[in-house]
């Protein structure tokens, strides 16, 4: 069972949680924000032609009025500019103040700006458009904040097996928002057409746009406020995410309470840890050199996450160039291929109705299914595969539309064009449009998660601005006589689609910078964790250990505990597949070819203070092991993660070599990685290359007969670690040695074997005292009369019932303290300087 240790707070309960009511509630509450986002962002594309007819009609013109290029660019792009600014600002604020504290502000902004957009009045067209652009900017600002906050909140509350589906489900609400925008426009325009019929523009240019049409676009824009209002209360009841509370706000008690409330299970933390949450093996919150103290855009951040941030930002940039070009200008594309009638053959409301119908059908058949394919499959085939697949097919279909473009414009071929065009939307949403939203919420540290998501999303909106404004001009006809009023000649629709195809190829390339996060915890992806712990039955061989953790990827370790002729001891820790020749190693240490042998069994308890089968580098935390030399296999540094026993052989921990280094340095040891398979010549001209690793002092082991606790095996029995493949150990498995337990809050350097033995004696004495007291309390005249000959059985059952839970708890505490001692000791231990 895996768990991330953060100040004793176990996120495994969240990572392993099955589908619960809270997950569904969180998807709906956060998803409704995206429903509103999509509705507000994309409904403007439906009403721009109507705005042109209402405010920019030119008497005597053969074409209906249209927005001038600068006005069209402003109306379409200003919300995207606001969104970009909001993503950066609220992303940063979400990491500084917490996700929940700023989550409601974004919704209030959206409500106020949606209503304000519909109330954009003025005496001239210019003032109306200026007011509309003002409110559209702040609408975008609120929408921008929803991106990093919704994604981060959903990611930090989801289980690792279904996290991708939950975040994708939140984003998939965008599809329903686009669908709703088309549906509302269809409904409103149809009602107004029925009540206020109008002729086509070619019949009567003035009467083709009825005065009441000015209400239509306002109603469509203001409807976007309703779903935001409906979800505001529920958004405010969401608790702060435990990961932010624990890892950033450093309040594990509050985090555990929120987890317990959300998951309906009791979450306990280790009270000994107070409110310091380590993000590395040897964490000290006051240490300025702590591994997690690096800042945003520091060298350490760029080393760890720089390429990841570049990959998420650029992939989002390129997909949004293509996606927003297609979405915002569907009406122009449909008109260009003849799917929509010529504008002068329709009235203003009739044109709005047909544009909305076309967008609704594309969303229904291509956009929405793509989103939900992602929801269904992302946790099975992974983010990387879906993003690659999406970019690839977007490129294919874009070229398939562009290269034979003339063919699609011919009568009778419009259906084929619309199908191909719809497939580009399908693979955008079953592809990078969804995954670029999901991945940034999973791969960055908790204290930067919202900021990094905001940066990635802002890069996407920069791409959307490029797409919206660039496509507006680029798609104009190459013949100046056939361009829209006020526009210069462009490169044409065919060449514009070719450019979008090339842009999709760039997105595919940058996908290779993004890591796969499927099935991994947020702490594992971001590096917030100390390590992962895997509990399993007691194991004594590396083969048995591999049965439990061998399929997780990484390097299993085998550990030798050796002794030379002068009673100097060595731990040799190597990868399971590394072959160590003791004769060669002995010669390289300068001990001669027969100078090393396995250490005797009693040395495990007296020096390393670990049970049989649990030789581990972490045993060096004990004062009794201060003269033991450690040699590490250089192969560990090439592993993504390595597996060791801590101080117990029923637990395996997974951590990086760099984190092992931090632990060793925290106890005053310099990590030494060597090639233990090498066999260099040793002679007069070639001194032993590992002679510097020979300990300076020997360690005397007391005679076993003098120990207060007798040894369980013959004193001359030689032992190796749990991890030596060639050794068959048949002795009984033992639990963590009593010597591995420290007194509460006592520094490791004060620990000595006799003190630890006294702790064990007190532990056993306490159990006996409790048992005796309970037994005596149960023997009364009344119980003797009542039970007679059955008194023994009754007392036995009663004692078992009363003591079972208490002894289980006490024993578990003793065991856990033993195998985690190495990490807590590393926090407080400060080795004396050597002179």
Quickly describe the structure.
The protein is mostly helical. The protein has helices at about 10-15, 20-40, 45-55, 70-95, 100-120, 125-155, 165-195, 215-220, 225-235, 240-245, 250-265, 300-330, 330-335, 350-380, 385-400, 405-410, 415-430, 430-440, 445-475, 490-510, 520-525, 540-550, 580-590, 600-610, 655-665, 755-780, 780-785, 790-830; strands at about 1-5, 10, 530-535, 555-565, 570-575, 595-600, 630-635, 640-645, 650-655, 675.
Main pleated-sheet profile: 10 strands, mixed
Strand content: 5-15%
Oligomer: single chain
Q: In which range does the helix fraction lie?
A: 55-70%
What is the CA-based Rg, rounded? 35 Å
- What is the number of E strands? 10
Walk me through the structure.
The chain is mainly α and 835 residues long. 56% of the residues lie in helices and 6% in strands. It has 28 helices and ten strands. Strands 1, 2, 3, 4, 5, 6, 7, 8, 9 and 10 form a ten-stranded mixed β-sheet that branches. α6 (125-157) packs antiparallel against α19 (446-474).
What secondary-structure arrangement, pairings included, does this model have?
Layout: E1 2-6, E2 9-10, H1 12-15, H2 21-42, H3 44-55, H4 69-97, H5 99-118, H6 125-157, H7 163-195, H8 213-222, H9 225-237, H10 242-247, H11 252-263, H12 299-328, H13 330-337, H14 348-381, H15 383-402, H16 405-409, H17 414-429, H18 432-438, H19 446-474, H20 492-510, H21 522-526, E3 532-535, H22 542-549, E4 555-564, E5 569-575, H23 582-588, E6 596-598, H24 602-608, E7 629-633, E8 642-644, E9 651-655, H25 657-666, E10 673-674, H26 753-778, H27 781-787, H28 791-828
Parallel strand pairs: 4-8, 5-7, 7-10
Antiparallel strand pairs: 1-2, 1-3, 3-9, 4-5, 4-6, 8-9
């Amino acid at each position: 069972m895996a768990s991330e240790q953060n100040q004793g707070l176990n996120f495994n309960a969240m990572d392993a949680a099955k589908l619960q009511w809270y997950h569904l509630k969180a998807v709906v509450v956060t998803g409704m924000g995206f429903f509103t986002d999509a509705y507000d962002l994309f409904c403007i594309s439906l009403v721009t032609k109507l705005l042109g007819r209402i405010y920019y009609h030119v008497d005597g013109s053969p074409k209906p009025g249209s927005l001038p290029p600068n006005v069209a660019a402003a109306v379409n792009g200003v919300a995207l500019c606001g969104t970009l600014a909001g993503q950066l600002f609220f992303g940063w604020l979400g990491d500084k103040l917490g996700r929940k504290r700023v989550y409601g502000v974004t919704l209030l902004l959206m409500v106020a700006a949606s209503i304000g957009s519909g109330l954009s009045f003025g005496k001239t067209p210019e003032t109306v458009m200026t007011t509309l652009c003002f409110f559209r900017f702040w609408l975008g600002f609120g929408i921008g904040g929803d991106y990093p906050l919704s994604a981060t909140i959903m990611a930090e509350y989801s289980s690792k097996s279904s996290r991708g589906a939950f975040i994708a489900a939140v984003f998939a609400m965008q599809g329903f928002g686009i669908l709703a925008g088309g549906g509302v426009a269809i409904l409103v325009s149809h009602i107004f057409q029925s009540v206020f019929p109008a002729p086509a523009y070619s019949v009567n240019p003035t009467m083709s746009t009825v005065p009441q049409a000015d209400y239509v676009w306002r109603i469509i824009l203001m409807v976007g406020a309703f779903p935001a209002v409906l979800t505001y209360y529920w958004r405010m009841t969401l608790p702060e995410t435990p990961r932010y509370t624990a890892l950033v706000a450093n309040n594990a008690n509050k985090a555990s309470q929120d987890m317990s409330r959300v998951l309906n299970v009791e979450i306990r933390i280790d009270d000994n840890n107070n409110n310091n949450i380590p993000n590395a093996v040897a964490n000290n919150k006051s240490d300025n050199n702590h591994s997690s103290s690096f800042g945003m855009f520091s060298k350490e951040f760029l080393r760890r996450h720089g390429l990841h941030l570049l990959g998420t930002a650029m992939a989002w940039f390129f997909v949004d160039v293509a996606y927003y070009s297609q979405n915002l200008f569907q009406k122009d594309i449909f008109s260009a291929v003849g799917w929509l009638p010529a504008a002068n053959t329709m009235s203003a409301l009739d044109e709005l109705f047909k544009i909305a119908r076309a967008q609704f059908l594309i969303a229904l058949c291509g956009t929405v299914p793509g989103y939900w394919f992602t929801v269904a499959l992302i946790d099975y085939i992974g983010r990387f595969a879906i993003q690659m697949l999406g970019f690839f097919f977007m490129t294919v279909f874009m070229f398939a539309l562009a290269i034979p473009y003339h063919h699609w414009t011919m009568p009778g071929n419009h259906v084929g064009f619309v199908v191909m065009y719809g497939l580009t939307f399908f693979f955008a949403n079953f592809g990078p449009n969804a995954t670029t939203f999901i991945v940034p919420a999973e791969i960055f540290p908790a204290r930067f998660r919202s900021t990094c998501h905001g940066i990635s999303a802002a890069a996407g909106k920069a791409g959307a601005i490029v797409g919206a404004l660039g496509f507006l001009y680029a798609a104009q006809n190459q013949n100046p006589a056939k361009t829209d009023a006020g526009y210069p000649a462009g490169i044409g629709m065919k060449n514009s689609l070719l450019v979008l195809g090339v842009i999709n190829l760039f997105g595919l390339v940058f996908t290779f910078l993004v890591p796969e996060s499927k099935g991994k915890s947020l702490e594992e992806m971001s590096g917030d964790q100390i390590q992962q712990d895997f509990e399993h039955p007691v194991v004594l061989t590396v083969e048995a250990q591999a049965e439990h953790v061998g399929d997780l990827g990484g390097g299993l370790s085998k550990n030798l505990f050796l002794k030379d002729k002068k009673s100097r001891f060595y731990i040799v820790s190597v990868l399971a597949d590394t072959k160590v020749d003791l004769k060669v190693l002995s010669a390289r240490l300068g001990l001669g070819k027969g100078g090393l042998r396995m250490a005797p069994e009693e040395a495990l308890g007296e020096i390393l203070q670990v049970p049989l089968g649990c030789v581990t580098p972490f045993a060096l935390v004990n004062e009794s092991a201060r003269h033991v030399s450690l040699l590490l296999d250089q192969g560990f540094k090439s592993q993504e993660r390595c597996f060791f026993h801590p101080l117990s052989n029923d637990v395996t921990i997974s951590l990086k070599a760099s984190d092992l280094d931090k632990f060793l340095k925290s106890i005053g040891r310099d990590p030494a990685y060597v090639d233990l398979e090498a066999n260099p010549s040793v002679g007069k001209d070639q001194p032993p290359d590992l002679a510097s690793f020979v300990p300076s002092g020997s360690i005397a082991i007391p005679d076993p007969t003098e120990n207060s606790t007798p040894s369980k095996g013959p004193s001359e029995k030689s032992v190796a670690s749990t991890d030596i493949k060639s050794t068959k150990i048949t002795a009984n498995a033992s639990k963590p040695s009593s010597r591995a337990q420290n007194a509460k809050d006592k520094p490791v350097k004060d620990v000595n074997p006799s003190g630890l033995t006294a702790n064990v004696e007190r532990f056993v004495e306490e159990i006996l005292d409790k048992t005796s007291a309970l037994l005596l309390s149960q023997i009364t005249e009344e119980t003797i009369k009542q039970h007679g000959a059955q008194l023994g059985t009754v007392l036995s059952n009663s004692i078992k019932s009363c003591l079972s839970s208490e002894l289980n708890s006490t024993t578990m505490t003793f065991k856990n303290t033993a195998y985690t001692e190495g990490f807590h000791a590393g926090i407080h231990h400060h080795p004396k300087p050597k002179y």
